[in-house]
Amino acid sequence: MPENCPVCGQHYEPEPGFYWGAMYISFGFSVPIVLLTGAVLYWLAGDPDTWVYVTCVAIIMLVLTPPSFRYARAVMLYAFGGVRFDPSYLKHK
Length: 93
Ligand SMILES: [Zn+2]
Known about the structure:
Layout: H1 22-44, H2 50-80, H3 87-92
Helix pairs in contact: 1-2
The structure holds zinc ion.
Zinc ion (ZN) binds next to loops.
Protein name: DUF983 domain-containing protein
Transmembrane segments: 21-45, 51-69
Keywords: Membrane, Transmembrane, Transmembrane helix
């Protein structure tokens, strides 16, 4: 992650350790994914063995970790970093 936005120069880290809170946001993304995966497996696969649940959830979480990591940081920055997207800024450049 660059220190500043290459387009507008916005500094991405308001304070040291700012993104620790993104762990909780990422956790908030993960819980519904795990529950939804379990529910889908239960209904579509007819309550398979435990190893099927664990394997499917592990694979899905591994695939979704990069976007979850990035979206959690973006949500953290928007929610607590005082950053707002201003589309009109791009028109002035
Ligand atoms: Zn920017």
